[in-house]
Every structure is written in structure tokens, then in C-alpha cells.
Amino acid sequence: MLKVENISVHTDSFRLKNISFSIAPGEYVVLAGPSGAGKTMLLETLAGHRKPKGGNILLNDKNLTQYSADKRPFTLLFQELALFPHLNVAENIGFAIRDKNKQAIIKDLASQFSITNHLTKKIYHLSGGEKQRVALARALATKPDVLLLDEPLTSLDKPVKNELIRILFRLNQQGQTIIHVTHDVHEAINLADKTGIMQNGELTQFCSPRELIKNPGNYFTASFLDYENILPLNGLEIPEKYNPSAYAYIAFNSKNIKPGKQSGKLQITGTLIQRPSGQMWLESALGLIKIQEADHYGIHDGQQTTISIDYHDILFLTS
Amino acid sequence: MKRGIQQQIFMVLSGVVLLFLAAPLVSLLLGPDLSEYTRAASDSETISSIKTTLSMAFMATVLFAVPGIPLAWLLARKKFMLKNFIQGMIDLPVVIPHTAAGIALLTVVSPKTTLGSTLESLGLSFIGTHAGIAMAMAFVSVPFLINAARQGFEMIPVSYEKTSMSLGLSPGRTFFKVSLPLARHSIINGMIMMFARGMSEFGAVVIIAYHPLTIPTLIFERFGAFGLDHARPIAALFVLIALAVFILLRWFATRKKYVES
Q1: What is the DSSP code string of B172-241?
Q2: A199, A312, B24, B190: which is deepest, by most CB within 10 A?
């Protein structure tokens, strides 16, 4: 069990504030957040490349906080992979292996990652996907308790990305604990057992992907989760049973919007705007609302109309 | 294709600089005839001076690479107090008059100083010795090595070193297995520059150790005592040797580069 307790890191320009979460062995955790949220800084802190100002990192109740990077049973795989250009593939994989069966281990990993034919090649002769596999093989050669991945799927071609997702799934199925940071929330939802959302150096949520989608909680997470419409609550008449005073925003998707006035539902009136693509927007006093295609409405660009949304399809969000 | 006016002006200006650089060297090399070259090459004092110059420049380079390369790494990788001051201090020997550098060294290692007398009692004297020549050469040329190595280390993405440590290698092993091989090209370039600058040093060397003679001192001595005709063949011979050494070292350094796009 990995426990991260109140980890804080201070630099001249950024602060990571009281990050806490725990991960069971074999779990796949994805920490998502926009650029500058502190994801890589957190990974580097877990890996031992940054000294926290406060807090603890415990693995199976052993406190690793003061351990240097080379003493921690974690391996960090950077986004740029950092494959050593002065070594060939086999030398990269075997870089940190001190076992007397080093060559056998290299061959085994090469076979596992389908890079046996590339073992004598220099790194700059490999394709993007091959480099990813070599980097993973090298990272796993040391049998880390936790594999730390910094944006592993970013800027990869679709086929390479899909292949890597399968590899990561397989590794996790084999029991490898993984912490993966990304700015792509879909990666978080699709891959993770648990998902964390990071914002401005804070871990604002940490739960299962299902819980996250069901209840994003605040404006930031909802916008990060691609909710199509997030509107300020001000000026809307919401029944008291939904406790509107506790929230600042509502979120809903266009598929839940019904044309016309329907009693017992939230009603918003505005002017329809139709884009050449067929996409429709409703310009309301609350802002632009993305709605479904024009056929549902039977009215045209520039006409006034009212839409209705069932309160059960609305998420209430804090600011 | 018609060249633009700007390109034509640049070519003329470039020609002026190249002529300025090439004319004295070509004139120097073409001046002596073959017999003068042969005489210079068989002169025992010249041969001894060449040996002294090359060997001491080599010694200075190798000896000061040992502490200079770790210093370069620290400057490239770490933040510490007085870092800018230290960087300025490293650059200083390049910009001060080299006779002043020789005087500065003398104030430290002269037998009249505590350090100098102590070292002399231990059998290490710098005044008028090979050790003094190597020290004077090192003083004015080590900035070339440190700066080149520092730039080499700075060019390596930090993620390589972090990855090595994350894979379980200690910082020391990471330095030898990752940082040093990846900065090798810059370090060797720096060593070549240090060696070249060291062997051409006159000002600091002549203050610390007029004898044993190095080639620059011998040229100065022959010119002062016998005039241009006696100094020129030695100077020409040394330029040829320097050129050969430089080409050889450059070839060695560029044989294999670790370049990752």
C-alpha cells in the first residue's frame, strides 16, 4: 500500500499543497489536470527528485520520504522517455540490471515487448512506438513496486497510442502498480481504477472514474470532464429542494435538453443560432448553450425558443 | 543566380578578415626554405622546447580535467551561493593580461610566500621548473575546459540523469554512466582548446619559468637576440606542429558524436 500524506513542495514559482491519497498494490491511478497543475512535480517528488517541504511518502508502512531517488523502489518514466542515446537498445534495457542473469533478463523483456529484433540498434534508429516499448522494458527491468508514468500517451500517433494502452493494461493486469499523470481526462477515465484531479498544485478529487463522472463536484472538474454546458446559477429559478444556495454553477449535456416548455423542469429561453455544420446554440441571458441539431426543434436560426432540462440531469457545482 | 548586394558586401567583408588571418600565417610558413626548416627541426634547443611545450600543456590539461570537469557539472546542474561570482572568477584568467596572471601566480607560489616555501620544503618548486610551466599554462587555459564542459552538461536534458537515478543508480554512477559519456564531445573539445591555449601561452609562463624554455619563450628569445631570420623558422615549425596536433585531436573528437535529434 502506497500512502501519500500531506505532501507539500515549494519552489520559487509554484507550490504543491498538502497532497494526500493512498493506492493499493496493483491499482492503476491516473492523476489528471491541465498544464501547470503540478502533476509532474508530484511524480518527481514521489520518485525522489524533489524534496517535499512537508508530508510523508509511505510504502507498506515504510517511510520513504527521506530516501534519495536511487533508493526508492519506484521508477519514473518521463514523457520524453530519456532513452540513453549513447547506448543501444539492449544496453538501455540492461542499464540498471545487476543480476548475473542480466542477458537472459534483457532477452526476456525484449521478447515481452516485441523488440528482440532491435536489441543491437541505437535509439535514434527506432520508431516512436519502439522507443516507448524500450523505455517501458528498461523501467520494468528493475522490478519497481510502483511505475510512475509522466504523460506516456501524449503526442503519440493513434495506432502507437492504442498499442501502448494495451501494454499498460496488460502490465496492470499482471499486478504492476501504476501512477500515470496526464492532461487528458479521457485517459484518466478509460485506464484508471482511481482518478485524481489536480488543479493549481492541489489534488481536488480522488475517486473512481465512475464517481468522478457522476459527481464532478466543482466547476473546474466539470469543465475538465467536457461537460458541454456549464452555466452560472445566478438568475435561475431552482426549487429549494435542490439547495441552490450551496452551489454556484449547473452543468448539463446537450443530449438531456428537450425542446419547448415542459413543466417541472428547468426552462431557459433564448435565440437559436445555427452554424453551417448544423450545430445549434441557444443564446440566452446566461450565455451560449450548446443544444442538439435543429431537427429536434423544428425552428430556424434567429428564432426565439425555450428549452427544458430535467433537474435529475443537472449537476450542481461549487465554484 | 545573381547574388544580392547584401551577400556581396558580406563576402567582401569576410574576405578582408580571412586575408587578415591567413596572410601572416602563409607568409610565416612560406618564408623559411627547406634547409631552414631542417635546421630548426634538428636544433636540440628547439626540440627540447617543443617537447617541454607539448608535454606540459598535456600534463596541465589532464591534471586539471580531474577537478575541472566536476566543477563544470556543479556549475551546470546546481544552484548555490556565489555561483555567478565563481563563474566570473573562472573567466577572469582569459581576460586579464597574462603577464599579470603570471605575477598573480608568483604571489602565491614564490618561495618568499608561506605556501611557496612550504611546497618547496616538500620538494615541489614552481619557479623555473616544468611544474611551474604546467601551472602557468593551466591557470590561463583551464577556463576553456570548464566552460566547454559546463555547456556540454547543460545540453544534456536533466531527465537522463533523473531517469538513471530512478532506475537505481547512485548520483556518482549516474555521472560516470550518463553525464560524462553524453557530455564527452564537449569535454574533449574543451580539453583540446585548453591544450591549444596552454601550449601557446607566453606571458604567464615567462614570469613563472623562463627556463626550461617553451617554444613561445624560445621564439621570443631568438627574436630578441638574433632577429627575425632566426625566430621565424622555429615559429613556422611550431605552427605546423600545432596545426598537425590540432587536426589530429579534432579528428579524434569528431569521430563519434552522440547526437539525438
Answers
A1: HHHIIIIIHHHHHHHHHHHHHHHHHHHHT--HHHHHH-SSSPPHHHHHHHHHHHH-HHHHHHHHHHHHHH
A2: B190
Could you read off the pLDDT of B7-43 as tens digits, one per residue? Answer: 999 999 999 999 999 999 999 999 999 999 999 999 9
In tens, the pLDDT along A227-246 reads 889 998 887 888 888 888 88
| CB atoms closer than 10 angstroms to residue A21 | 18
Closest residue of B to A78, CA-based?
B159
Q: In Å, what is the CA distance from A148 to each residue of A39, A139, A209?
A: 11, 9, 19
Architecture of domain B35-260: Orthogonal Bundle (1.10)
How far off is chain B from A252, nearest CA to CA, in Å?
Answer: 42
Return the pLDDT at A63.
Answer: 97
User: Which regions in chain B score pLDDT beneath 50?
Assistant: 258-261
* Residue pair B63/B137 in contact by the 8 Å Cβ criterion: no
**Residue from A67, A78, A88 whose CB has the most chain B CBs within 10 Å, to mutate:** A78
Using the Cβ of B183 and the Cβ atoms of chain A, whether some distance falls under 8 Å is answered with no
What's the rounded Cα separation, in Å, for the pair A115 and A132? 11
Q: Angle CA(A89)–CA(A93)–CA(A98) in degrees, nearest 5? A: 140
Residues A95 and B237: their CA atoms lie apart, in Å, by 48
ipTM for the whole predicted complex goes beyond 0.90? no
Domain ranges of chain B: 1-30, 35-260
Pairing type for strands A287-291 and A315-317 reads unpaired
Q: Do B169 and A70 make contact, defined as CB atoms within 8 angstroms?
A: yes
CA-to-CA distance for B249 and A134, rounded, in angstroms?
35
